[in-house]
Each structure stands twice: as C-alpha cells, then as structure tokens.
Design a protein that fits this description.
CATH topology of the largest domain: Rossmann fold
Strand content: 5-15%
Shape: globular
Largest sheet: 6 strands, parallel
CATH superfamily of the largest domain: HAD superfamily/HAD-like
CATH class of the largest domain: Alpha Beta
Strand order of the largest sheet: 3-2-1-4-5-6
Number of strands: 6
Structural class: alpha/beta
Distance between the termini: 18 Å
Mean pLDDT: 95
Number of helices: 10
Number of domains: 2
CATH architecture of the largest domain: 3-Layer(aba) Sandwich
Low-confidence stretches: none
Order of helices and strands: EHHHHHHEHEHEHEHE
C-alpha cells in the first residue's frame, strides 16, 4: 500500500483570502491591547507608526521592520496576561478563511499528517494555526526565540523537509497548498500542488515543476473534492 501523503498548507493568500501581515501591523497600530493603559497604547501606536513610516520610506529593510513589529507585539502581549489581543486578532483572521478551505483542512487533518508552513511571524501564526486545527506550525521564528531567518523560499523548503524527516514522513508524497511563486523550491519537491495564485500562472508553475500535478483552485471553490 502506498504511503499516506503529508499535507502542507501555506497561510496568506492560500488558507486566508488575504495577507495577514498588514492586518497584524494595523492591529498593532491601533493599539488594541485592552490590558494596557491609555498612555501605553498610545506609545505602542506611535512606535508602530514610526517603524511603518521608515519601512514605507525604504529607510528600514523588511526583515528589520518585521522584527521590530514582533518585539513590539511581544512587549505588549506580556502585559496582556489573558492574551485577549491575540485572541481578537486570531478571531479576525478566521473570518477570512477561503471558501472550500475549511473542508480541505478537515479532510487533510483527519489523516494526522498536516503542517502549516508560513512566513507569518510565530507571535500570531502559532495561535492562528492551532485555531485552524494544525498541531504543527512552521513560521518565522519569534522574538522570544531569538528571531531567525524568515520562513520563505529555500529556507521554507529546508525547514519543512527537516520537519518531515524528523516526523518520519520524509519519504511520504507531499501535497502542497500555496498561492506564492516564491514557494517554487517547495513546489518542486511536491507531487501535487493546489494552486491559489492566478490561474494564468499555473502553466508556468507546471513548466518549472514538471514532477508535480498543478491544480488551479482560485476560481474553483469545490477544490476540496479532489483530495
């Protein structure tokens, strides 16, 4: 009998119909941390606005800005013992799960072989992944863990393959859900790819990853039937 596949899900633009990162920054900007006093919330908003302005002016690299946002979030959440702000943000994002994706995740998660692999910061990706039913989440490392490389491109592939090997799933067929062309390194190691980028990009993905069956899904809400 063929080995059970492992199912790898991207988050932004794939499970979610949007990019969670700018929504997370806006959440910080608005200082939605109820346990903080008014002055602390104002300071959080101003510090977030400064980093955002520096980034928009190309005076701060993306990674540096992201790490600063992670630090600000961690500092604010440390004063929110019930994690109400985190719960609020997770609830917001759950409203943006793509049509048909809940069924696909449920089917995949029933196998016990799923992983969420995202560039999103672990500060919220871990909690959001768990809320979506994932026991395994690979994200950009948190401030608490000392940061680390963003979980993108070849690094994402390396992180995922190392995780699968550690789980004893290294030789299992891989089914990958993504919308990102920058995920090509992982696409090229997968056997089936549920593609949520533009349908017009699917032929290019197929050409660059000839070993994979590319299934365009953006305009096909019944894609879960193919699992």
């Amino acid at each position: 009998m063929a080995e059970q596949p492992v199912y790898i899900f991207d988050l932004d633009g794939t499970i979610l119909d949007l990019n969670s990162f700018p929504r997370w920054v806006i959440y910080l900007l608005r200082g939605r941390f109820g346990q903080l006093g008014a002055l602390a919330r104002l300071r959080l908003s101003l510090e977030t606005a400064l980093v955002l302005a520096l980034r928009k002016a190309h005076l701060m690299p993306h990674v540096a800005a992201k790490r600063r946002f992670q630090t600000l979030w961690a500092q604010a959440l440390a004063r929110d013992p019930q994690a109400l702000a985190l719960q609020g943000f997770v609830a917001q994002m759950q409203k943006h799960v793509r049509p048909g994706m809940a069924q696909a995740m449920q089917k995949a998660q029933a196998t016990g072989r799923t992983v969420l692999a995202t560039a999103a910061a672990a500060e919220y990706a871990q909690a959001l992944g768990q809320a979506l039913g994932f026991h395994h989440v690979i994200a950009t490392p948190s401030a608490a863990s000392g940061f680390g490389d963003e979980n993108v491109r070849a690094r994402k592939r390396e992180n995922v393959l190392a995780f699968l090997q550690a789980q004893g799933w290294g030789e299992a067929p891989r089914v990958f859900f993504t919308d990102h062309a920058e995920d090509l390194p992982l696409i090229q190691t997968s056997q089936i790819v549920f593609w949520f980028g533009a349908d017009a990009q699917a032929p290019a993905m197929a050409q660059q990853a000839p070993q994979a069956r590319i299934i365009p899904c953006l305009t096909q809400p019944s894609f879960a039937d193919q699992l």
